[in-house]
Specification:
Blueprint lengths: L2 E5 L8 H14 L4 E5 L5 H11 L7 E5 L3 H11 L5 E5 L8 H7 L2 E6 L3 H21 L4 E6 L4 H4 L2 H14 L2 E2 L8 H6 L13 H30 L1
Parallel strand pairs: 1-4, 1-5, 2-3, 2-4, 5-6, 6-7
Protein name: ParA family protein
Pfam family, one: VirC1
InterPro entries: DNA_Partitioning_ATPase, P-loop_NTPase, VirC1
Length: 233
């Protein structure tokens, strides 16, 4: 069965593309066949892919496609998704008509946030959209909030300390225990050097790899729960 993971937050710059790159690299390293769909007008994934081609650094097991419309995504899913073990969808950093069709095809929606009110509200909106689409279509798509670009300074911010009670207690969605820290390697990857998993292992790379492995471990747990809920229904 093809697993579909989408990164959605109506506010731009939240770290969606980086999170998907790292997740895709981990699944590809395991031997999975991964498709990444760029639906963002900024074309971050396609630019990365083009740069990887120019530098002869294309990761094995990953293919990248560009579809900017809901209909384009729908046609691609009908024709090609079954070829892949995982399909990862990068969405625009704004509210568009694309969101509902993406959720309708997804098993898991991840809403990356930095500790800012704007992005927290964007993640809450994404969760509410998932609930609405699930209710209309009778689906069991899961949703989780991922804290990104974390620094030591950020961890002392008031809003950072409020994220867990807001997301888990008040809103009622899942908050990933794994946090994505601000790391130079994540910026470097966008310049077309392949995936995190392709880099020579240094102490800094090892930390980033452990972070990504922990994140994917949580993703796998959520997907297992989604499948179980679907069977029960």
């Amino acid at each position: 069965m093809t697993v579909v993971i989408a990164a959605i937050n109506g506010k731009g710059g939240a770290g969606k593309t980086t999170a998907l790159m790292n997740i895709a690299g981990e699944y590809a390293l395991r031997g999975g066949h991964v498709a990444m769909i760029d639906m963002d007008a900024r074309n971050n994934l396609m630019k990365w892919w083009s740069d990887c081609q120019e530098k002869d650094a294309q990761p094995e097991g990953i293919e990248v496609y560009s579809h900017k419309t809901a209909r384009g995504l729908e046609r691609w899913m009908e024709e090609s998704s079954g070829v892949f073990d995982y399909v990862l969808i990068d969405t625009p950093g704004e509210d568009t008509s694309i969101v509902d069709p993406v959720i309708a095809s997804a098993n898991l929606v991840i809403s990356p946030i930095q500790p800012s009110k704007r992005e927290v509200l964007g993640a809450i909106d994404s969760f509410e959209n998932v609930l609405r689409v699930n209710d209309v279509l009778g689906r069991n798509c899961r949703h989780g909030v991922l804290r990104t670009r974390i620094t030591v300074t950020v961890r002392h911010a008031e809003l950072y300390r409020k994220i867990r009670p807001i997301i888990e207690d008040k809103v009622g969605t899942y908050l990933f225990r794994t946090e994505v820290f601000e790391r130079n390697i994540y910026k470097d990857i966008h310049n077309g050097i392949g995936t995190l998993q392709m880099q020579e292992v240094t102490e800094a790379i090892a930390k980033a790899r452990r972070e990504t492995q922990a994140l994917v471990g949580e993703v796998d747990e959520m997907l297992t729960t989604e499948v179980a809920a679907g069977r029960a229904a």
